[in-house]
Amino acid sequence: MTADATRARQRLFVHDPITAGCEIELAPEQSHYLEHVMRLKPGTPVKVFNGRDGEWLGTISELRKKKGRITAGTQLREQGTEAGPTLVFAPIKKQRLDFLIEKAVELGVGKLQPVITQHGITDKVRRDRLQAQVIEAAEQCERLTVPEIAEPVRLLDWVANGAEDHHLLFCDETGSGSPIGEVLSQLLAKGAGSVIDNINVVNHALVIGPEGGFSADELERIRKQPFATPVSLGPRILRAETAAIAALTVFQDRIGDWSHRPVARD
Amino acid sequence: MTADATRARQRLFVHDPITAGCEIELAPEQSHYLEHVMRLKPGTPVKVFNGRDGEWLGTISELRKKKGRITAGTQLREQGTEAGPTLVFAPIKKQRLDFLIEKAVELGVGKLQPVITQHGITDKVRRDRLQAQVIEAAEQCERLTVPEIAEPVRLLDWVANGAEDHHLLFCDETGSGSPIGEVLSQLLAKGAGSVIDNINVVNHALVIGPEGGFSADELERIRKQPFATPVSLGPRILRAETAAIAALTVFQDRIGDWSHRPVARD
């Protein structure tokens, strides 16, 4: 890495296209953050990405009064693919939800699908707040994409509509399923020819119930679907956010992108 | 499960031995919690465990003015073994440390070893505070044991003293190691005959660096040890608590107790 790239401690998600030498307008909050929180000056190197054009080394070319611009320099990483599974989750209490979202992004979630369940504690989801957290986590963990946060839907409606063609691994805390790692390794070994046509990770959805668990009705209706496999997450009772983090981890380890090495670092 | 066991929503860790019909004195904080937070009355069924005698159904026999007693009834679960790996971690900021501790207990950690590292943000560890969190998490996740929290030590002192005979899986964020899942499956396949004499999970320690990573000196000295194996945790930068949670999850999935089903639940 060049000295400038090493010095670029800030990494920003931007909406504009990025090409060599282009000028990128920052959002007022980003400018405020760089100027008043990080106390950076024009001339400071930063990294930028937009989910489409890879990662670039840029330089702050203007920064004052909530107005900021970056001049893009050289490309540091190409975009490549960054496919991850969908996480289907019931909203939980604020601090635990924040944690779930941050960790899911770090663990390479492809899409976040909030669902309203019968035992859930809330059906309110502030998507704008989650969106800001998802961007912050993506900037921090060196992802090149920002996962989508879908509109909340009722779990059973989502299932009845074919779950958007996903294969569901639903974390069934009654213990009816086989251990998640075994199920995933079997999927990998089977490959084509089963309900799962291929091991394309974006076709999978990990479904986590609320703190109160799925209702009997929900469990019965999910279990009936040919595209749903119950899985267990060990012998202990996991909180909802722990179950989500653990399921994503095992997914990435067994059939996801954890076979890839980290990008070069010092 | 009996109706009383199903009704027993509270689960308490106690220090006294538990036998059928015995009276168990509660700590003043426990009594206060049951009386004033949960608003329970004498006669209410509760579950108790002490890390040695399994889990018992009991009944509150006295509860007033911070004085409480439980009368033990029938045993619900035998003690059995609950072995888990050691987690070696550098203290991080309060909220993130709380989360790490709670999740580690849910994921079956055997022992928590705080270490002072060269890039760590703090060398202060409030063991009494961590102890209370560990107990609360163990009560909630239905463990039968409460993991030990060891005295903090300097990482390099701990390593120089043979790391208490553990095999170290150190999460090396420079990416020098193979993926953790692969390393664990190889250990399992090799069994005896290697540096690892057996797959006794308590012989393993997962070592997680601080937010700033291990220092060059620390990395070099850990890598030299024949009892240390570097492992990687995928292509993204994980926060320290995410790395700890993810490493423990993969450990339990690959060679730990996740092949066991959950205890029977409704």
From TrEMBL, chains A, B:
<dbReference type="InterPro" id="IPR046887">
    <property type="entry name" value="RsmE_PUA-like"/>
</dbReference>
<dbReference type="InterPro" id="IPR006700">
    <property type="entry name" value="RsmE"/>
</dbReference>
<comment type="similarity">
    <text>Belongs to the RNA methyltransferase RsmE family.</text>
</comment>
<keyword id="KW-0949">S-adenosyl-L-methionine</keyword>
<keyword id="KW-0963">Cytoplasm</keyword>
<keyword id="KW-0698">rRNA processing</keyword>
<protein>
    <recommendedName>
        <fullName>Ribosomal RNA small subunit methyltransferase E</fullName>
        <ecNumber>2.1.1.193</ecNumber>
    </recommendedName>
</protein>
<dbReference type="GO" id="GO:0005737">
    <property type="term" value="C:cytoplasm"/>
</dbReference>
<dbReference type="Pfam" id="PF20260">
    <property type="entry name" value="PUA_4"/>
</dbReference>
<comment type="function">
    <text>Specifically methylates the N3 position of the uracil ring of uridine 1498 (m3U1498) in 16S rRNA. Acts on the fully assembled 30S ribosomal subunit.</text>
</comment>
<keyword id="KW-0808">Transferase</keyword>
<feature type="domain" description="Ribosomal RNA small subunit methyltransferase E methyltransferase">
    <location>
        <begin position="86"/>
        <end position="252"/>
    </location>
</feature>
<dbReference type="InterPro" id="IPR046886">
    <property type="entry name" value="RsmE_MTase_dom"/>
</dbReference>
<keyword id="KW-0489">Methyltransferase</keyword>
<dbReference type="InterPro" id="IPR029028">
    <property type="entry name" value="Alpha/beta_knot_MTases"/>
</dbReference>
<dbReference type="GO" id="GO:0070475">
    <property type="term" value="P:rRNA base methylation"/>
</dbReference>
<dbReference type="GO" id="GO:0070042">
    <property type="term" value="F:rRNA (uridine-N3-)-methyltransferase activity"/>
</dbReference>
<feature type="domain" description="Ribosomal RNA small subunit methyltransferase E PUA-like">
    <location>
        <begin position="28"/>
        <end position="67"/>
    </location>
</feature>
<dbReference type="InterPro" id="IPR029026">
    <property type="entry name" value="tRNA_m1G_MTases_N"/>
</dbReference>
<dbReference type="InterPro" id="IPR015947">
    <property type="entry name" value="PUA-like_sf"/>
</dbReference>
<dbReference type="Pfam" id="PF04452">
    <property type="entry name" value="Methyltrans_RNA"/>
</dbReference>
